[in-house]
Structures
1.
Amino acid sequence: LAIGIAVAEWWPIPPAAAALAAGVMTAALFWAARGRRLFGVTVLGLAASIGAAAAAGARPRPPPDLVDGKRWILVGDVADTPERTAHGARVPIDLIAVERDGLRRSVDVRVLVLIDGPPVEPLLPGDRVRVPAELHRPRGFVNPGAPDAARRAAAEGIAAVASAHAAALSRLDVLYQTAENWPELLTVLQHE
């Protein structure tokens, strides 16, 4: 298992390819058991392919057209309290939609936006935000001795990362329709 996990960490193996390799190794295991040859090697190969499949399937993957290196306007809800860093803040966002060239499409993926300072407006989990940014896949082991950013992102369910200026991240006013705020909603509807 450990060999397969290590291989999947070093090379980005698609989950379908890892599952196919595990299926091939399972068939090879039955063949080796019948012929009583290379049974131990086949078992090790099956364990490695299962480890690779587990590691490949553990990381969230963004839709390929989102990480094309072009700027999107991201719209989503703040997933957790922004975390202060030495040079800014980390804001996890559950995307609802992305916009580009006047086209808007729905997405359901968590991204991490790194901003270059504290947020201009205070942000809390559940706040709807909008930010223009380019999305990228998380990279690991950029700085020797530093924590692996790709593993941390995978553990937090983050499929893509972006960076933006703090002033570009804006909070949108959204009136939630809940039982607690029905008088406010009624007032808004009467004035429209």
2.
Amino acid sequence: KAYLKEKNLRAGGTTNARGKVIFYKVIDVDGNKASSDFFRQVELAYEKAYLSALKDFSNFLVNKTSSEISSEFFNDDSSNTGEFKNEKAEGVSKIQAIGEKILALSEAHLDQALQKAGVEYSSRPKDEKTRLLNDVLIARTKSATSIQMSGITILDNFITVNEDGKAAVAVVLMQSPVTQDLALCLKNRVPPN
């Protein structure tokens, strides 16, 4: 944490003004410095720290991306989004009428989201429509997250001493639009801009 403060960085899924996202992990080194396999333990600790920070980063990106994609599909910018008319048929309770309207509205939103995704849905039952939309959301989240993961790089790694006086290693990962664009250029074998 002192390292991040010294470098004026914040970790844990916060984005700074330049779009950088920072994650880090500190892992204790097993064994003592006098041990013959101490450097092997340091290497293992680095691997654990890197993989753990990468896992945290991945979870953050999946959650962020799936939320963005879901809101894109379910964004309702129609002119009457705030309007609700309390109409009910004879012999139907007010609660039942509201429930029926909610179900009709949810199916309309589902149809609209499938249409935005370019999926043919008209003759399918609601449960199949739901499964189709879920498949589309998962596929797009995986694709977008994979692209974002390509922009993750190791900002720094170092050996330090934890509060107990024991050796520990730290790995600091960063993702930014610049590193993401560079990774995509390398992947696609095109020169960077």
3.
Amino acid sequence: NKLKELEISGDAKLSSMVSTIESQDYTGDLTLSGEKSELVLRADAVHVGGALDVADRAKGLVVAGDLNVEGSIGESGELTKLKVTGDTSVVGDVTTPGMQNYRQNLELIGDEEAIFKGEKVIVGRTIFSNDSLRRMIVDGALEVDGDVGKQNSPILGLKITEDLSLAGDINSIGELRFMKDVFLLGGGASYFR
């Protein structure tokens, strides 16, 4: 028997996989702990009302579904890697020494900058910011299989410290800074607006 949904008010600490049919809602901070090197959260949607981090031992996180985090992710530096199979929306910064893999869309929520620190950030579809203008800084490589920003909803700017691999367009009203190589993966033209 599987839980239909899970709601935890306040801060929560997890040390094993959590699987629900529909949603998981953690209204405060969510801390990953325990002996496992990787934890899995399986649900249609996982919402974290605060920060998402690791407490005691370095580990990775797989979210099988959509992920919405209203705080920072991996601020302690102990979250080794992050994989999300659904859409992702984040308010704060994301830090992993390893890979960040967002299989669907990545939405930047909030004001000012969104900083992604990791070896490589992979986005399977589009990076966008609907409600507010955000500047995206990637301290690592970035691979996007779709667009960065939308024509009717551009991002504020983009800075990448390593290589950029892009299959779509970039729609930005601010500065674009590429510190290393740019690889265009699409079969047609890529536009930088």
